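Q: Here's a chain of 406 amino acids. Please give me its 3D structure as tokens.
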Amino acid sequence: MTSHLPRPADFAPPPDAAVRAHWHEADRAARRERLASLRRRLTSAGLDAYLGVRPEHMRYLTGFALAAGEEKVAGHSGQFLVGLEEVIVLADSRYQIQARREASEARIEPVGYDLPARWPALLASLGARRVAVEAGFISQAAWQRLAAAAPAVELVPVEGWVEESRARKEPAEIERIRAACAVVDRALASLLPEIRPGVTERELALRLEWLIRTGGAEALAFDVACLAGPEAALPHGSPGERPIRSGEVLLFDVGAQVDGYRSDMTRTLFVGEPRARDLALYELVSRAQAAAFRALELSLEPGGARPDGRTTDAVARAVIEAAGHGEHFGHGTGHGIGLATHELPSLSRTAPTTPLPSPTVFSLEPGVYLEGETGVRIEDLVLYDRDGRRVERLTRFPREVLVVGG
């Protein structure tokens, strides 16, 4: 157990205006190579253009950024076409000013909710006859309408093209993920003195959200999870009106967003005197995470095999299985993170056996969940940089046993 609770001052402060300006300039410069990489892939596949619809891809390739969830009401605004020579960003009257500011190097086209009506003219302006489409993120009905609007144009389903590029993180991207981690580190440290028996999960979750939003984040990466006692056995549970009780675990799963990039951290705390069962589970999960982290470190040594997501998952899983809790660890060991909370690479039993990209950032988050009793998960974001010979935890909040509210 740690002898003292962490304090907000233990962690890095929020970025200032100069740092944010540096990030924006880094993005602007990086978009040239990001687009060039996509165009090389188009040319190699004999394609003329790429239709992108994912908000993360919009921001990554064009600079246009929708707020979280706004794509549900934005129509086609923010969607984009990358041709071999030009980029088109679609924007109706609500987004024209924003699009001109954020996607200043693209052609802004005033398309509202009826993309098929403009589709033939847009493709003709790019000279596109074969178009790659993000097949996993467009409905069959929308696909059929576009196909009918320009029957001479072939729509080609593609998946993972931009995702694979985004999995390899640029220095300014890593800096923003690190900053988002620090926001959560500081916020949870600020909350610790307020945790006591009787306060509810929902009250703590709302308070933590406030600390994140006022502590340097532009948004949450996802809704705060605060789960006490038996509720901690729900890997993705939601906070309720259940009061915190002494002798139980208290699990927080929380993330912040800073300049578009996200963090994700889980800490399982102990309210009052820990139970032996819960301490044993915590020690087990900690060993599983440490084993995966050590395997990543060993891969950097001379002659070390380059790890993949499946073998890294297997390292952590083997520790938990050896202790008889394999059936109580159902999810994957980790996931990539960046402009989206869950992205490539995957670390799971079904992950690809191709080497992990580098440099990249992903979570390590083994857990053990006993239905109706308790749950323990420890999650950190890890930077894996093979060329730089480093494996680094970006989350700095302590991993040792923490007792609060005693």
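Q: Can you summarize the key feature?
A: The first helix runs from residue 17 to 44.
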